[in-house]
Amino acid sequence: MRGIENDKPGWSEAMKAWLHPRVVTMLVLGFSAGIPILLIFSTLSAWLTEAGISKSAVTFFSWAALGYSFKFVWAPLIDRIPLPYLTRKLGRRRAWMAVSQVIIMGAIFLMGLVDPAQSHGHLVAMAWAAVLLGFSSATQDIVIDAYRIECAEENLQAMLSASYITGYRIGMIVAGAGSLALASYLGTTSEAYSYTAWRITYFGIGFCMLAGLFTTLVIPEPHHPEATQKIDYSTYEYVRFFMLFLCAVSVFVLTFYFAGIIASDVIPQASRIVGFLREALRLFASLLAALATARCLVAFGLVDRNMLSDTYIDPVKDFFIRYGLRLALLLLLLIGFYRISDIVLGVISTVFYLDIGFSKMEIAAVVKTFGLLMTIVGAFLGGMLTLRYGVLKILFVGALLSALTNILFMLLAVSGPDPLLFKVVIAADNLAAGIAAAAFVAFLSSLTSISFTAVQYAVFSSLMTLFPKLIGGYSGTIVTSIGYPSFFLMTALIGMPVLWLIWLVRDLK
Q: From CA 484, how far away is CA 497, in angstroms rounded?
């Protein structure tokens, strides 16, 4: 049984582990996972801002990444359903990994083919391409996370996590600093917007996914006895199960679309709070309609009840049985709110840097390169500290630093484009983020049962971004209402309850 705390190997053993083949593999796969995220967030924000899209509309695009927060819904399909020919040829994990990487490349190319400045229709097309990118990238994450946990023993998981984070941040440097630098070199600016420059940039970043695809094709498929003990079903049952998923998703999308039209007529947005509640009700109604559809189809016999229970219910029951109701609920609350400070701030960060007067090249140099290098340093430091002092202690330190460093952004908002202060703020923020991320990934891995790797880790990683991203979608609206200094103070304060949750978990573990 996997516990909350990991074993603590010596420093020399930990250093040698960096050269382990699985650790190197996770470096490249982490790079592949790190590329798509900024093409939905900050890089896309810079593109849309140059194209003249409103600040509120820019931050709403962060919702395109909600696939990361709902990936637990289709994680059981990824865990169960074999792909024709590919699963037999590559194995269960590598087949889905390769397919998701190909779709990611296609989604990036689709985004490059759309000019959001032309019309509202083009902006909508860009949004759908971004949703496809978020969905396929989240699928890749499901498989990589499962592969990471299954490919090596628990004593190597801390190093695999640190290596994955390092590769992830390098991918973010390429997709962030690399894309901004390339776009600027090709001649696009806020004063002279060039769609061609952004199109070439997105195409170039898309081809970087070939590194992950090549690695997927050459690495071995993990063979863990507990992970491979799955109940096999017929192809016909798998197809019926997939049809259930498609029907539920279709109902969700249609309900969400038409509920938006009805809500705008019935409940006018008289204030920011009313607008937030209206959208929350819209999301809840869509989820309720999807669940009702799934239940009706199960009642009519579309899917075998035992298959549904084995796929969705057993992984959840396993978690609550292992930790008990009280501790399990505390753990889920901690997972759901641990990253709230940095995610909510991160959605608006690039727009903030542009607003106070920094150029894209300065952002590329300081935030997307220097900042991410500091994150890598923080991840390395966090991994080593976690090995030495334990997961929960460094989890607490990371949460505290992540909240406190947000206050530094208040100074930057007041002082304006001060290059030295800019570097200090970015260094502190990213160092804290790296420490927190290394401890948090190790923490999530320790909570996961090897028998339900893909599903349980998908639930954890989905939950950790769901509420922060929902709030982050309104960050542009909040900034417009209260200003940047008050917004940054708010992001620091909302991270404080996380410390109390860690304290409670420590006492109950």
A: 22
